[in-house]
Amino acid sequence: MIIGAANVVASFTASFWGGLTSRFSPKLLFQRGMILNGILILLMGFTTSLHILLLLRIMQGLLGGVSTIGLILISSLSHGERLHKDISLFQNSITAGQLIGPPVGAYIASLFGYRAPFMFAFLIVSIFLFFCHHYVKDIPLQKKEIQSQAPFKKGLFFGWALCFMATIHVTFLPSIFPAVLSGFQLSGDRALQTAGFIIMTYTASAIVGNHLLSHFSSTLGLNRTIKLACLSSACFQIALILSRGLLSFTLLRMLQVGFIAGLTLTILWGFMASVKEFH
Length: 279
Description:
Layout: H1 2-20, H2 26-44, H3 50-63, H4 66-77, H5 81-112, H6 116-135, H7 153-182, H8 188-220, H9 222-239, H10 246-278
């Protein structure tokens, strides 16, 4: 519950954060949301109660939709060929952060103690905010569309459901890695190091998958690419059960994440294309 709470809550609050950009400065909202996220992360390192930790994660989920504002900023500040590259970089960075964060935090905790990774994460957020303040331009308030004119409501719902499913597929494994690796006779520090290596390998395949699927969607078509990503990811997910060694497990996981991570970016491009056509 603690691991999943933030992602679940964030999936429902993203549209709320996007709507706020019609009333408040997008850049200011983004900065305030990120600094509050950093404070919550810092507080997690100093709590001794699992119930408070769960509450902090829920609060972090309420602020998780701030990434939607980041997407709005990129969409407004990027033009032409840069738009595709910048949004791909943005999505790849989110995916890489979700996957690399757990093993990096675990390594820091094993070296310097439990509180160290939370303090390190707060420092990273602070550095990020410095660059954001000085180098990211603000944009005008976003025009709020009339609700009755919102296009493709059914498509948006299924797109949201697919993105939600994809996020679960990408992030579920680190939470059960101790149980998984015990099946390969690994435990303790060796299991921690192996888990970090596996996560880093499929982080690379996730980035490659984002790039390839977004490229193929322009030739295969959006619907075919989404179907290919979903079916392939499902097949590789089932194939994990059949793996008999750590190498085969890692390779299957890399292929599975490569397809499912690329699905999110493909759907995002579909949303942007439909909104552009609507306007």
